[in-house]
Description:
2 helices, 4 domains, 33 strands, nine-stranded mixed beta sheet, metalloendopeptidase activity, metal-binding, mainly beta, seven-stranded antiparallel beta sheet
Amino acid sequence: MYPLQCSEACDRGVMYRNVTCVDTQMNGTAVHDEYCLREGLSRRKSSRRCNKHPCPFRWVTTPWSECSKVCGAGIETRESSCHAINNLGWVDPQPVTRGCDDAKKPRNTRKCNLGHCNLGYYWKVKPWKPCQAECGKRGVQRRGVNCINTESQRVNRSLCATEHRPRKKQKCRAQPCGYSTCSEAQSVLRVTVDGEYSLLVGGHNMSIFCLGMNTSSPKEYLTLPAGEEGNFAEIYNQILNDPDTCPHEEERRTNCDCRQNESSHSGYTSFSKIRLNTTSLVVDTYDFTFARAVDGHLVRYGEAGDCFSMALCPQGAFSINLAGTALAVSPRTNWITRGTNAAHYINRLDDNQRILGRCGGYCGTCNPDPVTGLKLMLRDG
């Protein structure tokens, strides 16, 4: 038996091997399979499944449209986009521009024909029913396929051309079981008390704080076990008297030759919980429900800045610490600078569970790129 490589690097593949009957009395010489079968030896499998873990990116398609013609040759269309996928099979709803193999991009058009126009009888399809499978497993989904006449009346299916009959069933994967939002938990559990609930986030059940469970639109918040000391955002309130310099090799000191910048929107804000979209895993950095303005104005989560220096000497700081949760900051989250003489340094620690940032300028800030936002991901393992 000689094992070969898996046919796919990820997702479901097949590994093939040669299975040969050999004569142990003749130094392993290959003989006809009949000799092994006569001895009552069952033939070993020549292939098996392999690499069942999902690929990090996958093409996702919308359902095919209805055929453009009720009879005769027509066209069906669909959209396809590339999406990130984690090791639990959770597909990120936000498409990405890179990651998928363009050579494997699904086709977006195909020919269709629901029957011969001169016969007066055509196939009519109904929408697909939900996938018939247990939570998160593969199964089959079905749809109704009926034969109709020109008055859209259902008739005996033998009147329609069998070669044009659409498929009645297809393979599918059921959605993982659990509540994805506080609204779902509220509806199913019939609860009205705010608190921690187990929600399905990124394909994994985790504790999420639900606020407003006695209202029609409760909200989801991620509790931060690292606390306020590890989760803060700051617009530094000092400005150098000589802004062309960067003293002390960028080290911040309380005895610097500075003055307070009265005109800036400076402030220091700490966070104990952050608002999280449990579907897209994007943090709402404008939500300050569980934030505290320790000093000055409220500063957004993941933001920092100052008006300290023109010499690329940032002093404003932010800290994101997701230790104790099942989440980390996605590598797709990037920070961009705004303002004059802006500079920023982003330090990613502990596999992106901790992010430390220094940002500033004259005046300058940094924020998560609004295109992606402050996006989180489920940690591996």
